[in-house]
Design a protein that fits this description.
Number of helices: 3
Number of strands: 4
Strand order of the largest sheet: 2-3-1-4
Shape: elongated
Radius of gyration: 15 Å
Order of helices and strands: EHEEHEH
Structural class: alpha+beta
Oligomer: single chain
Length: about 110
C-alpha cells in the first residue's frame, strides 16, 4: 500500500469543508487539513488574478487518487480545480498504516 498527499485549493472555507467531508465520508481520504488565508496570484483567461483561497491537504492511498480527483472535479466550483498528487516516500509507519485502514481499497492488490 502506498500513500499520497493531495494538494487542493478551494475558493472558500465552506467549499473546502464540503469537499473535505465528502472525501472522508466516501472513504476516499483518511484526513483533510484545511488552511485558510492563502493568497494566490495567477493568470486566468488572460487576466492576472489576485485571490484569497483555502488550501486542502488530503491524505489517501495512491491507488485512490484518480477517483478522488474525479470526485473533487464533480463538486468543485472552479472550472479547472487544482488537484495535485504528491507521493509519500516515508514517514511514521503507524500513521501511514492508519491512512490505509481509513481509505477503502479499490482492489486486493492495494493491500
Amino acid at each position: 500500500m502506498t500513500v499520497s498527499i493531495v494538494y487542493i485549493t478551494a475558493g472558500s472555507m465552506d467549499e473546502a469543508a464540503r469537499i473535505g467531508k465528502t472525501l472522508v465520508q466516501e472513504r476516499l481520504a483518511a484526513c483533510v487539513n484545511i488552511i485558510d488565508g492563502m493568497r494566490s496570484l495567477y493568470e486566468w483567461d488572460g487576466t492576472l488574478q489576485d485571490d484569497r483561497e483555502v488550501v486542502m491537504i488530503v491524505k489517501t492511498r495512491s491507488s485512490r487518487v484518480a477517483e478522488l480527483t474525479s470526485a473533487v472535479k464533480a463538486i468543485h466550483s472552479y472550472d479547472c480545480p487544482c488537484v495535485v498528487e504528491l507521493p509519500v516516500s516515508g514517514g511514521n509507519s503507524a500513521f501511514l498504516d492508519w491512512i490505509g485502514k481509513q481509505v477503502d481499497s479499490p482492489s486486493s492488490e492495494d493491500q
